Every structure is written in structure tokens, then in C-alpha cells.
Amino acid sequence: MADERIGLIGLAVMGQSLSLNLADHGYEVVIFNRTAETTRSFIDGNPEQSRLIGTAEIERFVGELDRPRRIVLMVKAGEAVEAVLAHLVPRLDAGDVIVDGGNSFWADSERRSEQLATLGIRFLGTGISGGEQGARFGPSIMPGGNGWEEMREPLTAIAAKVDGEACCDWIGPGGSGHYVKMIHNGIEYADMQVIAEAYHLLRASGRSAAETAAVFRRFGEGSLSSYLMDITAQILEVADDDGEPLVEKILDAAAQKGTGRWTVEDALSRGQPTTVIAEAVLARSLSALKDERVHAASRLRGPSAPLVVEEREIEQALLASKIVCYAQGFMLIRACSGDLSWALQPARIAPLWRGGCIIRARMLNDITSAYRNDPELSNLLLDPHFADVIDNAQAAWRNVIAAAAKAGIPVPAYSAALSFYDGFRTARLPANLIQAQRDFFGAHTYERVDRDRGEHFHTQWAPGAATTPSS
Ligand code: 6PG
To answer: According to CATH, where is 1.10.1040.10 located in the chain?
Structure first.
């Protein structure tokens, strides 16, 4: 393995961290960046790392690599990837491997994988999570597409390790690696939102930022232990220059780069009710309407009742909602895998998120066990362990939502998660009425509980109601 060469294009922060990680693991990293000056200063800035080889021209970059060439792209998703490929591909040979390690849209990776395969070039669309520190010292890596056989060793070497297992495994064909990374980010949005709701409730019930940090530390000692819980406690303890908590000075308008929205758009297109992820994305959108909210705050009335809720109850609401958000993420993976015949295996995906990535959490050990015990598990909520955890949490979870509603505090993710849970465990929902209404005004027909599925009926509900069944 030592002294094998890997090419890397793109020296933004993730590219730099990944180059150093590869070099630490014995690989010579041949580097190309659009601006050669960045390459020079990066190499000069890391004099102790002798395995970094800078190149200023793409021809030289390609020429420095052994065949089959292995090239990792760490450039911005979208047009930048397209531009680099246009430059690079004509200089490559059949058998070479391109790894796209950015946050590319999965359908782009699917297309690129197919197009490049016609040239014999293997394209591995690879989700990488963990931010700068993860990329530097061990990210979670989700490769999909072609070329795994060439990239298994280096990617496994640089990935995070949990219980001796690398957080890196081939996900499936085409764009599946980036698809699973997109779902990771959808879960990340939801996880951040459920934590933010706990923060809102804890602050609204009179706790200081420091006291709230202490509560998060306590929560983080149990089943809720996670990277995001840990950084939340750390954030709440940071003071601004005047000694006040810095977090309270941050404008409450959340930004988003789009991977959460992609997840929800994908869920809508597949008819999958990933409600917690959707609420998390939309809660960011609502937060971004800062001026409108400030205006409305002076006009619209809410209740004046104080928030009455116990710390333990918030912990349970957080726990139950978090389980639902994972359940929804895996529902979407399952649906897409079926639609595209990817044969994705949750039992191989869950363990990749135990370390290195933003959503790493103790709960992922139990999720991994759930899918390893039953690879065909249709929904995480049906796993006996998680069914029990939610059952034990539900009284507190319901209290928190009721208390928040009475006090006028929004908890969209907790509410969406509970409504999903209740909807999912309800054998008969009121959708029969919706079907009747559709048939009344549009003759859209309905199925009957006392007849076979697939048989459609129409009723002339009233004089003037629709008469002609639509096809
Ligand atoms: C990761 C992160 C990473 C990035 C998000 C932020 O897994 O390392 O998810 O990909 O920080 O894209 O997304 P937003 O800017 O949309 O919050």
C-alpha cells in the first residue's frame, strides 16, 4: 500500500484534510487545484508531509499517476464537478477510477457513472461526512458506483473505525453512495432540529445557557449520546467578549445548502412520509423569515400560560423523535432501493454512521443491531428494542407536545414525529373520507374494505355530484 499514488483535485478545506489523511496512511498524493498558488502554499504549509506532490498542469497531474489511475475529486457539487470532468476525462484511459467525494446530487452521480462507464472509466460517487476534522482524521465514507475494488484499501484506511470496523463500505451501484449521503444529511437536519427544540423548551422554562448545557451533557450520557449533543453542550458554554453566551447573539435564521431539501423532494417524489425531515427543512425556512416573524410577533397573540414540563420528559421526547427520524431516513432508503433495484442493505449502511460522520450517535449501535438481527426489517419502529423504547417514552413525549402547545412554543419536529408514530400504528385512518370526497367531486373512485384491492367503485353521492369515473 505504501507509496501507491492517488490523485486529488480540489484543495478547499475538505480536499486539504483528505490529502493529509491519505498521506498519513502511506499514500503519495498527487495534487491539482485550479489555482496553482493554493497548491504551493498548501504543500509549503505542510513541510513534515513529504508524500504530497503538487502539480500545476492537469497533464502533469494525470502523468504522475500509476495506471489504473485513481483520482479523488473534492470540488463543489454541480457545475464545478462538471467542469473538472470535462477537463479530466479526455486525458484518462479505460480502467481509471474517478471518485467524486463532494456532496453531489445523487442523480448526477447516477448519470456520470453510466456515461463514464461507456468509456470504460469507473466512477465512484462517494458521500463523505465528518466535516474538516472528520476528513482529516477519519470520516464516514459512503461509496457507490464503479471502482470500489481499486478504492477499497485507501478509503478503508482513511475512514473512521468503530470496534475495529471501518466506517466505509460499498453502498451499491450508480448514485447510491451519494443517495445515502443525502439521507444522512436529511437525518442530520432532523437531528439538529430535535435538539434545537429541546434547547427552546429548556430556555423557555427559565434555564440559563450554562444550565441548558449541563442538561445536554446529562442527556448525552445515556441513549442520546451523540456528536451533535456533545457539540451543542460545548456551544452553549462559549461566552462572547462581554461574557454573555455567544449562542444568544447569533441571528435566529438558519441557512441551508440544499441536501435536506433534496431529501424531502425525493421523499415526495416517492410518496414517502418523511415528515420529521420535512419539518426540519421547513423549520429552517420559517426561521429565515426573520423580518416577517418579528413583525408578526408584535401583532399575533398566543397563550400566556407558562411552560410546565420536566427535564426528563424533554429527554424522552427528544429520544422518541430521534428514533422516528432515523426510521424515516431508512424508509426512504428502502423505497429508493426498491425503485432503482439497488438492493441497498440497511445492515451495512447503519454501521457506517457509527463513527466519523455528523450524525454519529450511540443509537446507531442499536440501529445496526436491529438490522443485523433482521436484515428484512421493514421499519425500524417495528424492531422490538425500539418499539419498547418508544413505548416507554410516549407518555412523556405526549406531555411535552401538549405542554409546548399550551405555552405557545413551536415543536414541529416532535409533533411531526408523534403524528407519524400515531399514524403509522393506526390500522384505520380517515383516508376513507378523503376517498369519498374525491369520488364525490371528481368521480375518482375508491376501493372497499369488503372487496379485493384493485377493484374500484364509484357512487353517485348526490344530485349534481360527479358522474363519470376518471381513468
Ligand atoms: C457532513 C455535513 C456536510 C455539510 C452539510 C451542511 O456530513 O459532513 O452534512 O455535508 O456540513 O452539507 O449542510 P447545510 O449547510 O445545508 O446545513
So the answer is: 181-424
String of DSSP letters for 393-447: HHHHHHHHHHHHHHHT---HHHHHHHHHHHHHT-SS-THHHHHHHHHHHH---B-
What distance in Å separates the CA atoms of residue 119 and residue 135, rounded to the nearest whole number? Answer: 30
Residue 292 has pLDDT above 80, yes or no: yes
Q: How far is it, in rounded angstroms, from Cα 422 to Cα 344?
A: 28
Find the Cα–Cα–Cα–Cα dihedral 176, 180, 186, 189, rounded to 10°.
-140
SS3 category, 32: strand
The closest residue, in CA terms, to atom 1 on ligand 1 is: 129
pLDDT of residue 370: 98
pLDDT per position as a tens digit, 337-388: 999 999 999 999 999 999 999 999 999 999 999 999 999 999 999 999 999 9
In the three-class reduction of DSSP (H, G, I as helix; E, B as strand; rest coil), residue 70 is classed as strand
Residue closest by Cα to atom 11 of ligand 1: 131
Q: Which one of 128, 358, 359, 360 would you pick to mutate in the ligand 1 pocket, going by the greatest count of ligand atoms within 8 A of its CB? A: 358
CATH of domain 181-424: 1.10.1040.10
Q: Which residues of the chain does CATH 1.20.5.320 include?
A: 431-469
What percentage of the chain exceeds 70 in pLDDT?
Answer: 99
pLDDT of residue 470: 59
pLDDT of residue 1: 53
CATH of domain 431-469: 1.20.5.320
Pocket of ligand 1 from Cβ distances under 6 Å = 103, 129-131, 185, 188, 255-257, 259-260, 357-358
**Which is the closest atom of ligand 1 to the Cα of 181?**
7
**Domain boundaries for CATH 3.40.50.720 within the chain:** 5-174
Secondary-structure class of domain 5-174 per CATH: alpha beta
pLDDT tens readout for residues 65-80: 999 999 999 999 999 9
pLDDT of amino acid 467: 83
Residue 185 CA to ligand 1 center (angstroms) comes to 6
Query: Model pTM?
Result: 0.97
